[in-house]
Amino acid sequence: MRIATFNCENLFARYKFRSNFDPSAEDGFTINNLAFDIYDETEKQITAKAIKEVNADIIALQEVENLLVLDRFNSRYLGGEQYRHRLVIDSHDPRGIDVAILSRHPIVAARSYRHEKNAANTAPLFSRDCLVAEFEVSGKSLTLYVNHFKSMMEGRAETKSKRVEQAKKVGKLITERWGGADFQGNFIVLGDFNDYPEGDTSLRTLLSHPGLVNVIDRLPAEDRWTHFYAGGNEYRQLDYLLLSKSLDALSPSPPEIMRKGLPFRAERYTGERFPNVGEDNPKASDHAPMVMDINLA
C-alpha cells in the first residue's frame, strides 16, 4: 500500500450569505442562511492534482480547516480517488488549520491529544494535534501518528522549545505503546514537523528514537528537500515519514517526493509542473507531498 504526507497549505472555505437572504433586513442570522465554498478554485484544483498524482491509499494532510471543507474538497476534486474515510478533529490553531486524514481503508479507532497541556500547564502542548488513527487493511492493523509541529515563523531558535516538547511527547507515546514489543508493529509517525534534521534541531528525540526510522535518508542528500522558502532561498526537509522497525525491514524502497505542484520560483526543481502553476501562485502548496510504498507486517 501507499502512505503519504502533505501540507496542502490553507485548504480553507469561506462563508457567504445565500443569494436569497438579506442580512441587513434581519436582526442577526442563522447558520441556515450561510453557505460556503472552497477558497481559491484554481489553487485547489492544483492541490487535487498533487494528491491524485501520489495516489496514496492513506494520506495525512496538514492545514485543513475542518471536516466540512475536507468532505467538499474530496467530493468536488477527488471524486475518482474513492477516499471514503475521512477524519479531522478541530484543534487550537488560531488560523483554524488542523491535521486530517484521507483513506481508502476504514478508520477503526482514533484518539486526539488536543487536550494535552504543556509542562508549564499554560497552553496546549500541540499546536494542532497529535492525531492517532488506526486502520484496518486487509485484516491487518496500521496506526498513524499525524502531526504538525510549531512553525519557525518567529525564528528557529525562538520556537525550538515548543517543538522539542512536542517531539518528546510523541516519542513517549511510541515508547509506551510499542516499546514492550521491541517496537515491532505497523506504525508510522508522519507529518510536517517544521524543523530540519540538520544542526541544532528540535527533532532529536524522534530522529534518534530506537523504534523509528527516517526513511528519507535512503535518498541522496541533495534530493531530501520537501519545502522551498523563498525568503532565504532555502530547500529543506520539513516533512517526515518515520517508520517502525517492522515496516522499515519489510519496505526497502525509498520514498518519493512529488514536486510538480511547486511554484516556478523553486528553481532547483526543473521537472514537469502541473498546468496553471505560476511563478509564485497558483500552486499546490509550498510543500511537496512525500509518498512511500510499504508492506505491512
Q: How would you describe this structure to a colleague?
A:
- The chain has 297 residues and is α+β, with helices and mostly antiparallel strands.
- It has one domain: Endonuclease/exonuclease/phosphatase (Deoxyribonuclease I, Chain A, 4-Layer Sandwich), CATH 3.60.10.
- 20% of the residues lie in helices and 29% in strands.
- A 6-stranded mixed beta sheet has the order 5-6-4-1-16-15, with helices on one face. A 6-stranded mixed beta sheet has the order 7-8-9-10-14-11.
- A hairpin with a 2-residue loop joins strand 8 and strand 9 (140-148).
- The mean pLDDT is 94.
Q: Which stretches are poorly predicted, pLDDT < 50 over at least 5 residues?
A: none
Helix content: 10-25%
Assigned CATH superfamily: Endonuclease/exonuclease/phosphatase
Distance between the termini: 12 Å
Looking at the overall shape, the CATH architecture is: 4-Layer Sandwich
**CATH fold-level topology:** Deoxyribonuclease I, Chain A
**Going across the major beta sheet, what is the strand order?**
5-6-4-1-16-15
Largest sheet: 6 strands, mixed
The Cα radius of gyration reads 19 Å
- Write down how many β-strands occur, each being a DSSP E stretch of 2 or more residues: 16
How would you classify the helix and strand content by structural class? alpha+beta
Query: SSE order, as H and E?
Result: EEEHEHEEEEEHEHEEEEHEE
| CATH uppermost class | Alpha Beta
